[in-house]
Structure formats: structure tokens, C-alpha cells
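Sharing in case it's useful to others searching the archive later.

Someone asked me privately for the predicted structure of MBL fold metallo-hydrolase, so I'm posting the question and my answer publicly. Question first, with the sequence:
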Amino acid sequence: MDVYHVTDGAEIFTCNAFLAIGDQTTLVDASSWDGVVDEIRERTDDVDAVVMTHQHGDHVSQLEAVVDAFDPDVYAYDDHPTRTHSIDDGDTVPIGDETFDVVYTPGHADDHVSFVSERSLFSGDVVVHDDGAFEYGSFGRTDMAGQSREELIESIERLRERLPEGVEHLYAGHGGVFHGDVRDVVETALERATNREPKYPDE
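And my answer, the predicted C-alpha cells:
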């Protein structure tokens, strides 16, 4: 499965949006960058589906533009005007050439889900490899209204329990793509979150 970081060239604050090309060509998160449609068209003429990790603005603002351009199915936990398929914990979704389990992972956002296959993890903002706060094993912020560090810790624990041993590709909502021991990154993030390490100095 070929996975492309289609917001890598964005010069605004946005999430990482990933295009997985395969039997089910899929965009994971739509971003807030108005160049995302053109960047997708550099790679493919068709997008079969969009799967959303959560609906914060930096992940969802360009969703309607993507839908207008490619008419994909849209999978999301919470309702959205473009959603065609509701997903919940324990469901499965095809992304590229792999089948992914849906893991409900709130704390950073009430509607947050992650996607886990035998080889890959699309973690959204619940676990991040490096994001400026931590260089190896970070986690989503929980210092804003409606967010919860306790729920986030439970979510990372749930993700660790559901993570197969062979996962070696981590595609997170921010920071860099990671290839290697994904379980170790998740466990490092969990340890930091559990130890109440502040993600930001004023948290």
C-alpha cells in the first residue's frame, strides 16, 4: 500500500492528511489546507473514501471540497453533512489495501477514532511520534474545554491493547511519519500521559 502525506507542503497550520492508494483509495482526514484537492490529483483521479479520525477544524475544514471533487464515501464517528457511513468502536474499514479496525479513542476529542491494521496505525491526534512537545512518543492536547487527560490515557491504553505486534507504520495527525516499533512509541506516549507530563508549559 502506497501512503502519501498530501499536506506535507502546506504553509498553514493543518493536520497531516494521508492518501492511501490501493484497492480502496482512501484519504485519512481532509485537512484545512485549500491545496489538498490539487495535491490529491497529483497522485490519483479517484478517491473511493474519506475516513475521519475526528472533526476538529484542522482535520475537517476541506472535507466538503474533497467530496465535491471526488464524490467519495465518507466514514466518520459523529454526524457530518457529508457523512455516508457511521463508524464505531469494533467496526472495520478498508483503507488502501488493508483492513483496519476502528478503535474509539476520545480525550482529545469526543468523536476521536483511530484505525489499526496488522501493519499500520492511523492514530489521528491521540498518539503522535514527534510534534515539538516531545520528540518520541507524544499525545494529543487535553488543555482545552471539553478535553480530558483521563479519557486520553484510557484511550491510549485501549489502543495499546488492540495493537497487533507487527505494526510498523505510524501515520499521526501531526508531526512526522514513523516506521519502526510503533508499540514502543504508543507505550512511551502512554507513560508520559500517565505521569502527567505537560504537553505545553502552561498546561
